[in-house]
Amino acid sequence: MKLSSVMTTALTLLASSCCCAFVDKHPTPAPVGEENPAVDYGQRLNGVLQHLWYVEQIRSEQAQLAALRAQRKALESAIRQRQCEVATASSSVDQRVAATPLDPRVN
């Protein structure tokens, strides 16, 4: 995990311990017969860690997508350049063929 994610987790847990409704506005009720707030904080911690994991996954996939887009642009540029080179070479061959007389005796 990145340092910013760890710091975010620590601050979220601190705020969650100070304010019951910080992480989720509708806290899940404790199981019947249990009044242990530690269970609720454990669930909140799991939720926060899962959320941070999702955020890191999204950032990673965004970076991969940006790299793939850059590769695609480079390949498209190379293809266009290659097509221009082929077209230029083809037109120069056509010009040479047009300039060459068809009668082999004329040289």
TrEMBL record:
It comes from the Bacteria. Residues 58-85 form a coiled coil. Residues 1-21 form the signal peptide. Residues 88-107 are annotated as: Disordered. Keywords: Coiled coil, Signal. This is Lipoprotein. It comes from Serratia proteamaculans.
